[in-house]
Amino acid sequence: MTRLFRNVLKGRCSAWVTAKNRRTLTCVCALICALALPAQEGTPPGFELWSLKSLSPVLTDLGQEAPKDPHRFAVRQLADYGNDSFLLVHRAGDGQVEWHETQADVFFVQSGTATLVLGGQMVNAETVGPHEKRNGAIVGGVRRPLAAGDIVRIPPRIPHQILLNGAPEFNYFVVKVKGY
């Protein structure tokens, strides 16, 4: 069998290689390949799947928490890894001005409408944690309307704020990309 295998690989199949030998060789090769592949057991570490169905009760809870918050805001951290973290956010009022030195924000708008104010200069801000500023105001900047289905990336060191403009609520999924 070894000589046959070597000859097949070198393209020197002699006339004595019968259809039966070819089938056997094909089966042996397939078996070797199958055994060489590692078996996948369970979900790989770090894999996450958030379906609309799984997020719905979380959004309901956040909707009940937000009116109790002075900023009419509720957030749930869904996962945190070394380079990124995942949040679900519900707003029932305008957000504070935010600035992140080492993180980019990616918003996936789930429902509602709002205006994103970004850029310009952040004034009268407070440092609220390492590499984080809040409050104050944005002077200048641009305004971008947001609605369900929109996806936005906000680079690090860019002041930004969500304004609801009278809308009752705004829900979005946030990916914080760390390490800038």
Q: Output the helix-strand order.
A: HHHEEEEEEEEEEEE
**Major sheet attributes:** 7 strands, antiparallel
Give the number of helices.
3
Helix content: 10-25%
Structural class label: alpha+beta
Give the mean pLDDT. 87
Distance between the termini: 58 Å
- The CATH class assignment of the largest domain is Mainly Beta
Description:
The chain is built from 3 helices and 12 strands, in the order αααββββββββββββ. With 180 residues, it is of the alpha+beta class. The chain folds into 2 domains: 2-36, no CATH class; 52-178, Jelly Rolls. Strand 1 (73-80) and strand 2 form a beta hairpin. The model has no long low-confidence stretch (mean pLDDT 87).
Task: Name the features.
180 residues; alpha+beta; Jelly Rolls; 7-stranded antiparallel sheet; 3-stranded antiparallel sheet; 3 helices; 12 strands; 39% strand
Short description:
About 20% of the residues lie in helices and about 40% in strands.
Secondary structure layout plus pairing:
Layout: H1 2-9, H2 19-36, H3 52-65, E1 73-80, E2 84-91, E3 98-100, E4 103-118, E5 121-123, E6 126-129, E7 132-134, E8 137-139, E9 142-147, E10 151-154, E11 160-163, E12 170-178
Antiparallel strand pairs: 1-2, 2-12, 3-7, 4-9, 4-10, 4-11, 4-12, 5-8, 6-7
